[in-house]
């Protein structure tokens, strides 16, 4: 939009040739004249972008036929070439219909029912966070072999130091992604995720293997109670004997 307004300003207000202005703006003469014609016909509203989709599709597949394609796909689990003789349609058209309806990959279908398997997604931001740690090798000063090549002096020096037991080690990228919004947070640390690993160990000792459970549901039912105890009542040496909730300002049942 900004470039189109500049075009109008320089051609109309400054009375400059279209050929000179479009060269400055990096577009063709045809494009420049197109936007000028739209502006003269519609004013500033003509400078808005328009969808490139056609207003009418003369050869659009009939909706009932599309429904038949989808029904056979989910029932027979066959590809476009094998469905073409049954529907008396080109395989390319069947593929286009399946792609439009998200049925073009058998791996996305539940084999017994033929229904598309949808990935789950939480309804609200912050409801579920995905957390992971990625280990990456540290970079030596000046870069590694990807910068200098495998036959470089830097790469030979790396091998000599590695054989001598002098390694640069690793860095750990701690990442968290919100399930609903896909907002991401990442931070690089020289250590692994020690706090989470210690929590996993505590969780195994005090919940997962704390007693014999009748089944998985029995164990899952015990998780909320254990989490409440961990967060609100279990003392932590690193926190001076206080529970984790003590470090949360204005948490539940806290008014400070």
From TrEMBL:
Q: Where is this region: Disordered?
A: 234-256
Integrase catalytic domain: from which residue to which, for each copy?
189-252
The Gene Ontology biological process terms listed for this entry are: DNA integration
Known Gene3D superfamilies for this protein?
Ribonuclease H-like superfamily/Ribonuclease H
> Where does the record place Polar residues bias?
247-256
What's one GO MF term for it?
nucleic acid binding
Give the protein name, as stated in the record: IS481 family transposase
What is the native source organism of this protein?
Winogradskya consettensis
């Amino acid at each position: 939009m900004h470039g189109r307004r500049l075009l109008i300003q320089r051609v109309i207000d400054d009375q400059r040739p279209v050929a000179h202005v479009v060269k400055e703006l990096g577009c063709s003469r045809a494009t420049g004249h197109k936007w000028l014609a739209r502006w003269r016909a519609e004013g500033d509203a003509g400078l808005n972008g328009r969808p490139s989709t056609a207003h009418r599709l003369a050869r659009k597949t009939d909706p009932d036929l599309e429904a038949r394609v989808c029904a056979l796909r989910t029932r027979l689990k066959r590809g476009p070439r094998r469905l073409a003789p049954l529907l008396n349609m080109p395989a390319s058209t069947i593929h286009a219909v399946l792609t439009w309806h998200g049925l073009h990959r058998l791996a996305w279908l539940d084999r017994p029912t033929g229904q598309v398997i949808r990935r789950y997604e939480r309804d609200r931001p912050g409801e579920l966070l995905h957390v992971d740690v990625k280990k990456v090798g540290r970079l030596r000063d000046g870069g590694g072999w990807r910068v200098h090549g495998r036959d470089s002096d830097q790469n030979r020096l790396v091998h000599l130091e590695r054989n001598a037991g002098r390694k640069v080690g690793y860095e750990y990228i701690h990442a968290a992604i919100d399930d609903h919004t896909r907002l991401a947070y990442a931070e690089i640390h020289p250590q692994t995720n020690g706090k989470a690993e210690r929590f996993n160990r505590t969780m195994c000792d005090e919940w997962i293997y704390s007693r014999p459970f009748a089944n998985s549901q029995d164990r899952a039912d015990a998780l909320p109670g254990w989490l409440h105890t961990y967060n609100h009542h279990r003392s932590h040496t690193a926190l001076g004997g206080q529970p984790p909730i003590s470090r949360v300002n204005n948490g539940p049942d806290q008014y400070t």
